[in-house]
Task: inverse folding
């Protein structure tokens, strides 16, 4: 699994359908029973032919953990462990290793953003946004962080205006990046489903990756 494009499955037509679903719940009468928006990971599991979660490479995990125990100041091995557990969809364990890496390298923006995505994958949207905000204090133009911030705002908080701002800023600061291409797809879905959404290049000042 690509941590930088965690919800890559929510793209194109399917992305538009989910955006439309969010807008529908936002416009429902106040007396209606509140619906819970599908999490990114749940949405990604919707296709009937979706592959099963990857199996943890136990041998590699054990080897990396031995290395981490013998090298208490090695942040990289802790990031590697976080990546390994994330790819096996063991997000709580992945988070703990990313946290350990950040204690050693507080300015590691990639580890910080991976941690934020791990929180989101564990259904902790608020905590994910806090971590992504921290990543942006390290690098305000970090493309992967801005893309994921938009994803969490849209799907974790149903904040479509906030998501649009994240993606517009991403397109402004990193227009040629793969993340910017995905951001354009997300913005197109927002515009198609919500006529009031400002076009890329307006509002947030720009133009929908783990």
Result:
């Amino acid at each position: 699994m690509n941590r930088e494009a965690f919800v890559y499955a929510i793209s194109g037509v399917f992305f538009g359908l989910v955006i439309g679903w969010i807008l529908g719940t936002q416009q429902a009468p106040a007396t209606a029973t509140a619906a819970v928006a599908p999490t990114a990971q749940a949405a990604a599991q919707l296709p009937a032919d979706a592959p099963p979660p990857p199996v943890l490479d136990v041998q590699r995990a054990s080897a990396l953990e031995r290395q981490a125990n013998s090298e208490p100041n090695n942040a990289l091995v802790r990031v590697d462990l976080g990546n390994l557990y994330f790819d096996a969809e063991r997000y709580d364990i992945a988070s703990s290793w990313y946290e350990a890496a950040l204690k050693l390298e507080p300015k590691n923006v990639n580890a910080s953003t991976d941690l934020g995505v791990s929180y989101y994958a564990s259904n902790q949207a608020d905590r994910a946004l806090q971590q992504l905000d921290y990543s942006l204090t390290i690098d305000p133009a970090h493309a992967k962080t801005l893309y994921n911030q938009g994803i969490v705002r849209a799907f974790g908080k149903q904040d479509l205006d906030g998501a649009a701002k994240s993606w517009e800023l991403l397109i402004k600061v990193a227009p040629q990046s793969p993340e910017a291409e995905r951001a354009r797809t997300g913005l197109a879905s927002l515009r198609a489903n919500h006529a009031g959404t400002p076009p890329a290049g307006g509002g947030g000042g720009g133009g929908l990756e783990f």
About this structure: Residues 3-193 form a domain with the Serine Threonine Protein Phosphatase 5, Tetratricopeptide repeat fold (CATH 1.25.40.10). The chain has ten helices and no strands.
